[in-house]
Structure formats: structure tokens, C-alpha cells
Design a protein that fits this description.
Length: 327
């Protein structure tokens, strides 16, 4: 549904005279009395209308995430998500320099191809690229468009560590977290417009306080907690993906411990203010999920264990022979 549809519907539902006609103009006293009397009616209509439309959207847009089975609301068509993913990916690759490290590029494509093979999304047009940057980051856009920044690769230490990062990012695309976030933001915006409409007869100071309270409540009470849910869910989905792809899942909590140790002291903000769970929480939750992931790993068709060790960030000496790992 387009962003303005809810608001347009609410605007139409608030017309008191048919066909937009205003009818005879009442006296000013009568207008005041009528405004006071009809304010609760108008407010009730707006809330009822919003509720009806919201209920219809929930019925239409509800789905379950793969692997975890969580119920989610996504109102963005997946085809549109994938188109947006292609466009955004091209913009990033046009702007950011591609890595000249041939071994990094080969390593990322190798690990990515193995994870994609068990992702059960043959309709994705998978791409794996490495960006020349010290940034410790990675992403996967809808449709399987993956980018890994060079800065995160040394923290991985091995193919399995890289599989932790890549499977986590791929899990976001599989679970359609991007579409869910767009949906949540649109609902938040529509709720804000509804609040403005309901409060339009209040004085400015009360209106500002109420709208500020709505913004803070929706951001810290809904948007950020949902974002942390997405990250934890991607961790759990990614853990199973890397195990099924043949990489030792016991590397996952170790990666997050290394990632935390690599951060400058005091950089991590309080969890309730963050879009991500704390690294310590992620490591703990992943370690708790290892028994199930190891069962998946034990049943994998091919086992690569920890794979090649990543030992340096130069163009010639990047990997060593495979590490000893769980077989």
C-alpha cells in the first residue's frame, strides 16, 4: 500500500457533509457549540477508521519468517524489495572502490556460494563483492546482493568466521527484515498523522508534548526493540545456515567475542538505545543455540570445518591451509 493511502482514507472519512459540500453557514456561536459536540465524533471516526484499515492490513500482510517461524507484518511486495535492492546495490558499488585483493574476493565468493546453495532461494540473483575499505561492516540487500568490507575480514580469522558474518547478513534478506522495517516506519508515520489530526484543536504546547511523547514511545518502545529482534533472529537463522553449508557453528559466538574485543573502549552504547543487541548477549545466545546447530552441521553433506585461516590483509598472503576443526 502506498505511503499516503491510509492518510487519504482518513481524510475522506472525516468529511461531515456529503460530496464535499459545506451546506449553509451557521452562526459563530452555533459553530463553537457544534465543533465542541462533534470533536469526540470526529476523533472516534478517525480512530475507528484507522483500526479497520489496520486490521485489514494485518490480515493481508502477515507472514512467517523462514527458519524461525516468527509472525511478521510486511506490506511491501517482495518484487519491489528486490528491485530496490538491485538499485541500492549498484549505487553502493558505483560509489565505493572494489577490493584489489584477489584472495579476499575469491574467499568471499567461495563462502557466499556455499551459503547461497542452502538458502533455498533459487530466485535470488546472488552477487558477492568485496569493498576496499577499513570499515568493519557487511550487508545483504533483497535479492541476494552481498557486500563485505575489507575491514571486517581480519576479525573473522577463518572461513568459518567469515561464514558467521555472511550467513547473518543473508539471513536478513531471507527473513525480509528490510521490508518489515519499511512497513513499521510507514505505520509509525501514519500513526503520527492520526495523532496530529486528533490533536489539531489542542493548543500548540500540548500538541508538541503529545507528539514528542508519541515519537519517543514508538522509537524506543517499538522500532529499536524490533531492530534488535531482527539482529537476534538473523544470528539464529545465520547459525543454522552456516552449519548446513558445512562450516563449524561453534565459531559464531567466538566471532562476536573477537568483534567486541576489537572495538575501542567505551564505544558500545546502552542496548536499549541501540539497533543491535550487545555483542556479549549475541555470543551468549549463539552459544546456547549450538546443540541444535551442531546437529545440523553433523548432517551436512560437505564439512569444511573452520576452512582456511585468514592471516593477513595484503594482496599476496591472505590464507593458510585449513585449520583443525570439528569434522
Amino acid at each position: 500500500m502506498r505511503k499516503g493511502t491510509l492518510l487519504s482514507w482518513l481524510k475522506l472519512s472525516s468529511n461531515l457533509a456529503p460530496n464535499g459540500s459545506e451546506g449553509p453557514r451557521p452562526s459563530s456561536d452555533e459553530t463553537g457549540r457544534r465543533t465542541s459536540a462533534t470533536r469526540p465524533i470526529r476523533m472516534g471516526r478517525a480512530v475507528l477508521g484507522f483500526g479497520i484499515v489496520g486490521a485489514c492490513l494485518v490480515c493481508w500482510g502477515c507472514r512467517s519468517t523462514p527458519v524461525s517461524g516468527r509472525q511478521q507484518l510486511v506490506l511491501v511486495p517482495e518484487a519491489q524489495e528486490m528491485e530496490m535492492g538491485v538499485t541500492a546495490y549498484k549505487e553502493v558499488l558505483d560509489k565505493e572502490p572494489a577490493s584489489k585483493n584477489a584472495k579476499y574476493v575469491e574467499l568471499v565468493k567461495r563462502v557466499g556460494t556455499r551459503i547461497a546453495a542452502v538458502a533455498k532461494r533459487d530466485d535470488f540473483q546472488w552477487e558477492f563483492n568485496v569493498i576496499q575499505s577499513e570499515t568493519q561492516n557487511a550487508f545483504c540487500l533483497p535479492g541476494g546482493k552481498v557486500a563485505i568490507y575489507e575491514g571486517i575480514i581480519p576479525v573473522c580469522e577463518s572461513e568459518a568466521g567469515l561464514a558467521v558474518v555472511m550467513s547473518h547478513e543473508i539471513a536478513h534478506a531471507l527473513a525480509r527484515h528490510g521490508g518489515e522495517r519499511v512497513t513499521q516506519q510507514n505505520i509509525k508515520n501514519a500513526g503520527g498523522k492520526l495523532a496530529e489530526y486528533v490533536l489539531k484543536d489542542q493548543d500548540d504546547s500540548k500538541k508538541k508534548i503529545a507528539l514528542a511523547a508519541y515519537g519517543a514511545a514508538s522509537e524506543y518502545g517499538v522500532i529499536l526493540p524490533f531492530s534488535r529482534t531482527h539482529e537476534s533472529e538473523a544470528d539464529q537463522i545465520g547459525l543454522k545456515l552456516m552449519a548446513e553449508a558445512g562450516y563449524d557453528p561453534s565459531e559464531a559466538p567466538k566471532f562476536w567475542e573477537r568483534f567486541s574485543a576489537a572495538k575501542p573502549a567505551g564505544q558500545e552504547q546502552p542496548e536499549w538505545l541501540s539497533t543491535h543487541p550487545s555483542d556479549a548477549r549475541r555470543a551468549t545466545e549463539l552459544r546456547a543455540a549450538l546443540p541444535e546447530a551442531i546437529k545440523i552441521y553433523d548432517g551436512a553433506k560437505n564439512k569444511f570445518g573452520l576452512g582456511d585461516r585468514i592471516v593477513a590483509l595484503d594482496s599476496t598472503n591472505v590464507t593458510e591451509p585449513p585449520l583443525t576443526a570439528r569434522r
